[in-house]
Design brief:
The protein has about 70 residues and is of the alpha+beta class. It has one domain. The chain has 2 helices and 2 strands. The protein has a two-stranded antiparallel ribbon with strand order 1-2. Helix 1 crosses helix 2. The longest helix is centred in the N-terminal third of the chain and has 11 residues.
Length: about 70
């Protein structure tokens, strides 16, 4: 699987901070990540991340699947 997120209309600089916004929103509902410094992969879902961007008209998400035989 390969995914590419494209930000339109000069929204690119906002994209990196959206993961922190999504995690903060998740924590506001009671979620607590494990303590300590580590990779944050898996802490939020793609849908939580896209919701944090909150401007669907300014993003494009392309996902491509390829079989293992190819």
């Amino acid at each position: 699987m390969r995914a590419q997120l494209t930000a339109l209309n000069d929204k690119g600089p906002e994209i990196p901070s959206c993961a922190a916004v999504a995690l903060g929103a998740k924590m506001a509902t009671g979620y607590r990540p494990l303590p300590g410094a580590r990779a944050c992969v898996g802490e939020i879902t793609v849908n939580e991340y896209l919701a944090a961007i909150n401007e669907p008209s300014n993003i494009r998400l392309d996902v491509h699947f390829q079989s293992r035989e190819a």
